Amino acid sequence: MSDPLLFVYEDREYLLAPGETLESDLGVLEVPEDVSPGDTVETHLGESFTARKLRGPDLFNHFERTGAPMMPRDLGLIIGHTGISEGDRVLDAGTGTGVLASAMARAGATVTTYEVNAEFAEVARENMELAGVADRVDVRAGDVTEHLDGPEFDVVTLDTADADTVVERAPDLLVPGGFVAVYSPFVEDTRAVVETAREVGLSDIRTFETIQRRMDFDDRGSRPSTAGVGHTGYLTFARKQ
């Protein structure tokens, strides 16, 4: 089967593969086998959908979820602060839905990622297929702390409650100049990561709280949205000398 595309109608979007059929209040949409991004396909009621290729933000919305995925702003900070790029080798733990692993692979890295829940790991493998990076992401079911003897990595990314245990081994896991990036939902876990990074001699240790506010524009004026501050978690970065 060919890769699925997004079919967009105003603020609605549906993930469909060539040859599939969608039935909705807008009519029956039969997707041609030779459909390409940019094509317009009509339902039997004459409503037009535009085909669009999946990109990173679309994957965030259409991955099958096994929990709360890391937000796009967190992904951007991790890639930006570590410089993940073509040819990098990444060790990732706490795969979950696989949003981070897929983003790093799409940036050109080769990722080995561990997920303790075998069922979640299988879902993540399917998501890697959808993202087109199954050849770059090795999803393994297991506890990363039991698999820390191996090759050195350019970057280690962690989204686990026991991240400090892995950070303790970071000097052995990273190439010189390599980075570790840890996502923590709670400040207590973040403090443990920072203290461990200091103890093992990592440098350039920095922690950020990730907050994002949308802007509202209307006839009265422009201001940040009042719908919450948009806190997601804490990101800690450190580097091997």
TrEMBL record:
UniProt-listed Pfam families: GCD14 (PF08704)
Gene Ontology CC, one term: tRNA (m1A) methyltransferase complex
Residue ranges annotated for the tRNA (adenine(58)-N(1))-methyltransferase catalytic subunit TRM61 C-terminal domain, each copy included: 73-216
Keyword Disulfide bond: no
Gene3D superfamilies: Vaccinia Virus protein VP39
GO biological process, one term: tRNA methylation
Coiled coil: none
Alphabetically ordered keywords of this record: Methyltransferase, S-adenosyl-L-methionine, Transferase, tRNA processing
Gene Ontology MF terms in the entry: tRNA (adenine(58)-N1)-methyltransferase activity
PANTHER family referenced in this protein's UniProt entry, alphabetically: TRNA (ADENINE(58)-N(1))-METHYLTRANSFERASE, TRNA (ADENINE(58)-N(1))-METHYLTRANSFERASE, MITOCHONDRIAL
Protein's recorded name: tRNA (Adenine57-N1/adenine58-N1)-methyltransferase
Species this chain originates from: Halovenus aranensis
